[in-house]
Amino acid sequence: MRAATAARRVALWSFNFDQTHRGAMLPVSLKRVTSTDRDISPPPAKRRQVVGTASSNVVSNFFKPTSQKERVKVAFHIHDETLLIARYLEADTVPRPRPLKVAAFDFDDTIVTTKSGNRFSKGPDDWRWWHATVPGRLKQLNDDGYAIVIISNQGAVSLRADTKAPQGGMRSLNNFKGKVTAVLNALELPITMYAASGPDLYRKPRVGMWQQLLKEYGLTNESDIDRDSCLFVGDAAGREADKSSGARKDHACSDRDFAANVGLPFHTPEEYFLGEPVKPFVRTLNPSVHLNVEMTTQTDMSPVVFTNKHDVELVLFCGSPGAGKSTFYWRHMQPLGYERVNQDILKSRDKCIKVATQLLEGRRPVVVDNTNADIETRAAWVGLARKMKVPIRLVYFTASAKLCEHNDAVRALTGDLMNPEKRTMLPKMAFTGFIARHREPQTSEGFEDITKVDFKFQGSERQREQWMRYWLS
């Protein structure tokens, strides 16, 4: 009992960070501060509850005389439920005049890699430097007045106590904290680490971790940062496999995209630590391309703007989640008097058919705003149209799966700015599932005509700024 009580008591330390609430992914408001040469390290340590369990060593340390106790050198704090922040407390800092130079790094396969050779660490001791030059380069950056930060996606780390977890409770968190503690203790530099554990605003390439850094370091004005001298180093760079060197394809482009989102020069670990030349890379999606694509609508016969041809008709939408179907309805169909039937709202196809039947019986034109990916699903609506003796037409949304994922992430994570229906972000399987079921619609299925709609972004300048960022990790 005494040990358990001691563990709880000793777990009351951490350091104080600004408790800001997570909001929409909007540009940070920048305001000039008065001081131009003060140290910009986050606020000093303040006691607060630390997440995790106290080890026997911690309990033993609690009962030692003050003179014999080991000092806590690395403090951890959970911000906004999904962001883990760590800071090395005991290190000499050099003056950092404004504008500040920031050197930001990814963690795994950039600062460290595993000793075991596995992709993921087997435990807190399963790490080594990515290259022998890493510690020296980081020390030199500190000596040159840089603020060094680590910005890392850690989706495998759970920040919540979950008794159903296969490894039990907080093991993933404790292992990660042990690893981070060992690395920061080895470096002995004033480093702050931000680790995103959830698929939300903080996960790279989204800029939530960078925004949190700006708040904590007091960088409230654009002129507070020397962006030309800043840098971000990470391994998720969108590089293809290189057979000549045996290099594998990068698992993502999220580090390169993150650097682009926050406006930092980007380097891979090979480029920065080893001086290798820049290698070609490929982005799976470049949003800017879709700003210059005109929205086209055409039938099988000739290009036309969509119009209602009959007083009462059934119009079927076909397209992936995130393809712009609902936006098209509100902008083009609702003003023409069409009623909307949507399975996200009504929860089942049977309920959708029931409501559509009632509307058609009331002599109202109807739009079925669902994905309607396969022939079998569309056949049910063709059958309803025949039963009700009304024409049926189809609007086909052609946006690619990656573009649809991008649209969905922007919609879900920008709050009220672009999400009037307050939809949550869909899992990846929603898009892969559509692809698996999708069969391109044909007029031979029974449709009077098919209107194709290619995606083009439409919105305010503020919405455009958000949509133009990279959102997919």
From TrEMBL:
Single Gene Ontology MF annotation: double-stranded DNA binding
CDD domains: HAD_PNP
Entry superkingdom: Eukaryota
Annotated signal peptide: none
GO-annotated biological processes: DNA repair
Protein name stated in the entry: Polynucleotide kinase 3'-phosphatase
